[in-house]
Amino acid sequence: MSRSILHQGDYYGNIQKKVQTKGVILTLSNYPIHTTLPDHFHENSYLCYVQHGSYQEQSVSGKLICEQEDIVFHPAGIAHSNAFPAAAASCFNIEIDAGWLSKFEAGPFTLTKIARLKSTALKLLIHKMQAEFQQYHAWSNLMIEGLTLECMALFLREKALHNDVPNWLRMVKEILHEQQEPVALAELSAITQMSPFHIVRAFKKAYGVSIGEYVNQLKTDRACTLLRHTQQNLAQIAVECNFADQSHFGRIFKKITGLTPLQYRKATA
User: Global pTM?
Assistant: First the structure.
């Protein structure tokens, strides 16, 4: 079976926008429902953030169902085909030039199979990159290349952690994701039968942030969605995302994303 090679910066679908630095190519590609893409591979490795919709991907590793907010790593040269049977999709692609990549330590980029991940921390880094992508300026190249290296290193770290985290700690993370209201440490202790001290220490060791910092990431991620897709004002978003008030929302949001909520809304409009 013949396979097409997509060279640097090339993608199937409708290309909405493209930004290129010396080492990274950012592309926003759209795919109508019922689209099918032939077997192909890419010249460069890239991360695909499923911004909207969903799709199916077939490769030597098997079949993946990629849903909204999934982050999928594709190594260079790995053949795959795609189908969009259930919904249209929009993909934000972060492509890494092989020549530029060779200047850096190879450790963070040793994945040899297509791999999928859901990660709040990684998604927030990608949101920062999307803001630079939408409001490109003289300093954007430096920001984009730095954020790309952070994204790749974090992707590898979180994939490596996936098999090492005990089930009870995964449960803690799932509870934090699922609960709409604040959760007390005593409740987590009762559910997991682990001491509060052990939960706090194990969570920080496994995920690199404290439980409190992780909760702020989740709230910020939820706020990003509301800023992009609704017209709610900042006070309403602060309440819906369980921030103490609008001022607290603004401080935490800027600390995590590097932007104020209004700057983020404008950059991703």
Answer: 0.81
Hey, what CATH topology would domain 4-162 get? Jelly Rolls (2.60.120)
Q: What is the pLDDT of residues 186-219, one digit of tens each?
A: 999 999 999 999 999 999 988 888 999 999 999 9
In angstroms, the CA 65 to CA 182 distance is: 31
Residue 173 is inside which H or E element, if any? helix 167-178
Does the domain at 164-268 match CATH 3.90.950.10? Answer given as no
Mind giving me the DSSP string for 46-62?
EEEEEEEE-EEEEETTE
DSSP letters, 121-167, are HHHHHHHHHHHHHHT--TTHHHHHHHHHHHHHHHHHHHHHHHTTS-H
Residue limits of CATH 1.10.10.60 in the chain: 164-268
> Which residues of the chain are in CATH 2.60.120.280 domains?
4-162
Instruction: Give ∠ CA 171-61-18 in degrees, rounded to 5.
Output: 90
